[in-house]
């Protein structure tokens, strides 16, 4: 659905995005993470046919972004960083204006559908200036969806929302994903990325890493098992298991790094029991994506 | 360019501008019609036109119809001043340009839609004010008043309303839009656009006071000069209304 090849964008001397190559399949929810100024918004603008790349090319929804930006704009929807609604117009007139720009055959039905889905129907005739931030964000999402785009770009959809509104928006995104839409999601919220995204790309001018949240974690840390014991044991004598890469003992807790816990755990546990360990719990240590993110971003020198 | 999108944008501009508060109403509708009302009032104040002799009538009509003529020259310049600036500044303030540019709307449609949203009311209101003025005079004053007025003002009215009004409205619209794209606050934009308006307004007034009644073609020449300015401003705006330019350099 989205193919980017060596996409680069400069503003004068400043390089905003450098040599970005990506491929995103239909129905994927692709999370785009990176610090402020990393080039996320610039990338979205290039992929949505708003800004021309300085170099490289991109195909979105089967259309070349450089050659036919107008057609790309027809096929994609975008939630921009700022909602950019007309505050003096009602929710309904805001959407009607956009529906007419897309020349929808039946804009009223689409407006009704999305205002209902996002819980704004009752307030459709009120000026948007009287809406809360969360309501504005929802209205902007409705606006991005009116023409039923196949590809949806969401630039920080939950930034500045309270936890409850953020959850509503997130649930809505999950629902959109289940409708086989391709979603490109820029966010600073790592929990959100982990919850929603099939794959994640880390960017800081250049694309640092791409992978599923699980892959990213494993690649960086390997897999780690946490074993809780009833009483501390001394592991002075080696475990004598070749596959154990690293053991940290911390009172009654053991942290053990393994490559393939599914196969290796039974052997490991048997050996521990032989050594007199009284095992209470065994589980895999789940690192937060935040740790991964901070590690990768700090490794990357600007 | 599709007319539908231009029309949709134009309707949006009007809905937004006229919901935007009283200032637009006052600047575009209330002030013109109040000024015109005052002139009409003065006409009626004069009293009985039937009693003055023809020479006297010609002098009186020449004096009483002069101020409304100035208004018909002024309205097409003053009305775009508020609408055109608003059309650009409000998009910038609300940061609504980016989502707008993400639609299939072309930048030339954006320019034409915004420009027409200001030129059409400016010309329309000027013409309506003129029609109202002539209508009232025709219905309520003795017929010879309009006859005498037509002899003196007919040619200049045609020139002012047919030629000067649309070209001047276009000039003021393009100038205000150019300024509004470059400037980041409303007051500066209004001030600069007033500076752009003054020379045109003063030249028109000067011509009226000095020569015009005898030589309406001079106003035509002024209109021609404005037309050249219009072309220059369109050329400038074509550059300012690039998608790239709007997204990265309009502040
Ligand atoms: N119009 C512009 N003119 C000049 N530089 C720009 C422009 N737009 C973006 N940049 C620069 O490009 C870089 C990337 O900006 P971008 O907005 O894409 O970052 P981002 O990842 O979206 O950041 P954030 O998380 O803060 O939204 C920044 O250094 C920014 O200053
Ligand atoms: Mg951004």
Would you give an account of this structure?
The complex is a heterodimer of chains A (302) and B (251). With 302 residues, chain A is α/β, with parallel strands linked by helices. Chain A folds into two domains: 210 residues, P-loop containing nucleotide triphosphate hydrolases (Rossmann fold), CATH 3.40.50.300; 66 residues, Protein-tyrosine phosphatase receptor IA-2 ectodomain (Alpha-Beta Plaits). Helix content of chain A is 35%, strand content 28%. Chain A is built from ten helices and 14 strands. In chain A, helix 3 crosses helix 4. The longest helix of chain A has 16 residues. Chain A is elongated, with a radius of gyration of 24 Å. Chain B has one domain. Chain B is elongated and about 70 Å long. The two termini of chain B are 26 Å apart. Chain B has ten helices and no strands. In chain B, 87% of the residues lie in helices and 0% in strands. Chain B is mainly alpha-helical and 251 residues long. Chains A and B meet through helix 2, helix 3 and helix 5 of A and helix 1, helix 5 and helix 10 of B. The structure holds adenosine-5'-triphosphate and magnesium ion. Magnesium ion binds next to helix 1 of chain A. Adenosine-5'-triphosphate binds next to strand 2 and helix 1 of chain A.
